[in-house]
Design brief:
Blueprint (H helix, E strand, L loop, with lengths): L6 E3 L12 E6 L2 E6 L4 E2 L3 H6 L6 E7 L2 E8 L10 E4 L9 H19 L11 E2 L6 E2 L6 E2 L4 E10 L2 E7 L10 E4 L6 H13 L2 E13 L4 E12 L9 E8 L12 H19 L1
Parallel strand pairs: 2-6, 11-15
Antiparallel strand pairs: 1-5, 2-3, 3-4, 3-7, 5-6, 8-9, 9-10, 11-12, 11-13, 12-16, 14-15
Bound molecules: zinc ion.
Zinc ion (ZN) binds next to loops.
Length: 280
């Protein structure tokens, strides 16, 4: 997920909410939507008011001419007749992609709002900080910003083969690239070398950036790379990896769905290796 075309982000709420403002209202992890299962719709801020639903409002920015806000509804908010609360994942391929991307952004802001009501240092109720998206403690001055956790994904290549692994948490038979969260003190390249060594016991070189993807479950930024094999034998870490193998670029196993950056990384790399092999 990424910033949709024509979306102008901002955290400053307009003085008056214009008609047609869209409200991305969450009750816990679920988004309030109308319409049908196959064609869900997002309520306007005015419609939310007519339903009697309120909560802390965070301005997100404008999609074209439509201002967008995130609303954190209370856990006890009732489901209004004709509307429903839906998990974000259930809205993939149903909600238009720009709205889905803003919903994912709204979810992360609402989640941050909900988990930073009190100062993490002294426990005093926090307040919104003027001029930026942050919460501050009136007692000790501690400031908390929305959290984004960088993670890396890497597809290791060796000649015309790629290294794919099946994590214990994956559905049986599905293989993917390696991934892991950055630890304090690491660069992204440090993280790649450490994770590959820990997960499969292999060394890598020539780390090359591919693309990145915001992922709202719960607040990660996945940064994807390719890297070339530089030594070692595959020795999977049994706590995380059920199986890891080299796969020839024309013999791929079952892969993650196309919505994931993992699939785009694998498809693009396999295409490149296949064309290099054809030329050699
Ligand atoms: Zn404090």
């Amino acid at each position: 997920m990424h910033t949709p075309e024509g979306f102008l982000p901002s955290h400053t709420l307009p003085a008056a909410m214009p008609a047609g403002s869209l409200a991305f209202a969450f009750r816990e992890a679920k988004l309030l939507v109308g319409g049908t299962d196959d064609a869900p719709s997002i309520p306007t801020h005015a419609e939310l008011g007519q339903m009697g639903l309120t909560g802390p409002v965070h301005y997100l920015g404008a999609l074209g001419h439509a201002p967008c806000v995130a609303v954190a509804l209370p856990e006890t908010a009732p489901e209004p007749s004709g509307w429903r609360f839906a998990g974000l994942r259930s809205l993939f391929f149903k909600l238009p992609e720009p709205l889905l991307a803003i919903a994912a952004r709204a979810f992360q802001i609402v989640e941050w709002d909900r988990t930073h009501c009190y100062c993490g240092r002294c426990g005093t109720p926090t307040r919104e900080r003027q001029g930026e998206r942050a919460k501050e403690c009136p007692a000790c001055g501690h400031v908390a910003f929305p959290r984004v956790s960088p993670a890396m994904m890497v597809l290791v290549t060796r000649g015309h083969e790629v290294l794919l692994a099946r994590a214990n948490r994956f559905p049986a038979a599905m293989f993917s690239a390696l991934a892991g969260f950055v630890e304090p003190g690491e660069t992204i390249e440090d993280c790649i070398r450490r994770e590959v060594r820990e997960e499969v016991g292999v060394e890598v070189a020539n780390i090359t950036y591919f693309a990145s993807q915001s992922w709202a479950f719960p607040h990660s930024l996945m940064i994807a790379f390719t890297a070339e094999y530089a030594g070692g034998e595959i020795a999977p870490d049994a706590t995380e990896i059920a199986e890891a193998r080299w796969f020839a670029c024309d013999a791929m196993p079952s892969l993650p769905p196309s919505v994931s950056i993992a699939r785009r990384l694998i498809d693009a790399t396999v295409r490149r290796l296949a064309s290099e092999r054809a030329r050699s």
